[in-house]
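[User] I have long wanted to understand how a fold can be written as tokens. Those tokens are not coordinates but codes from a learned vocabulary of shapes. Could you go through the record with me and say what the backbone is doing? Thank you; the sequence and its tokens follow:
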Amino acid sequence: MINMDIGKYLIFSGFILVFIGLVFMLSDKIPILNFFGKLFGDFSYKSENVSVFVPFTSMIFLSIILSLLMNLFNKFFK
């Protein structure tokens, strides 16, 4: 029975990765996704030789969305 659960999670993870890949491929064409990486808490530093970008707020936002999706998945498929 454990193998069936692992298989379901692997299939679900694969679908999520494909979906995320499609979103990244189409992100220039979807205007609502242009804010990602440009939120208030995203740190960006550029100088002549160095460029640093740390998306703090975007990663927190992404973490919340993924946590909600995983909780919904666990609630409906468990």
